[in-house]
Amino acid sequence: IYTTGKDHQALYDLVMSQKSSTKSPDKILSCNIRLAKIAADLGRPEDAISALNDVLKLQPRNLEALNSAIAIHVQQKDYDHALEKLKGKLECMNTDAEKAEVYCEVARTLETANWGKAQVRQSYETALKADPRCETALKALYDMAEADGDKRGQLDVLRRRADNETDEAAKLDALLKVADKAEEDDSCADIAASVLSVIYSAKKDDVD
Question: Are the C-beta atoms of residues 86 and 117 closer than 8 Å to each other?
Fold first, then answer.
């Protein structure tokens, strides 16, 4: 069992020797993943990234390697490479919901990098284009609007959540709450009117 820095270095050297002595792609892959973890423990991010990149050369869709590399890049403030790896991660996703969560991860990375609210917001919007029900993106956009004192932005998110309701009664109830909240601010009167129109139209259809 290796616990100290010296032990970790000995383990790193051992795994490096094992890697050098084999021609098996699977063995090399396994060694590289271990080397990355040990290098990270040793505080050597460059070596960790090098090992992870070797993994990704063999398996571009290796999520363990991608996630580890992204985390290290962000920790090192190497945001360009983090975003590059996130692009690779996006290509590994099979469902729209999974893709939406990666776009949210892109947004958080952009926010950490201080690339500006517009780009962060756009990434969350891209997430919602992939999956309109992505609660991670909806919550983030609501929180951003709330922090900016953007009442219309908050109402927009609430309206989207209401539109996502599959039960008609629940949807109308959610829309009514949006209208009530909109009526609290004169600058949002047009939103209140628009939402109430939808509610009245839906109830009229029920009567007809």
Answer: no
- Determine the 3-state secondary structure of 48 from DSSP: helix
Is 9 buried (19+), middle (13-18) or exposed (0-12) by CB count in 10 A? Answer: middle
For residues 191 and 207, the answer to whether their CB atoms sit within 8 Å is no
- What distance in Å separates the CA atoms of residue 98 and residue 90, rounded to the nearest whole number? 8
pLDDT for residue 1 = 40
65-92 pLDDT, tens per residue?
A: 999 999 999 999 999 999 999 999 999 9
Q: How far apart are CA 76 and CA 24, in angstroms?
A: 32
Distance from the first to the final alpha carbon of the chain: 76
Q: What is the pLDDT of residues 152-168, one digit of tens each?
A: 999 999 999 999 999 99
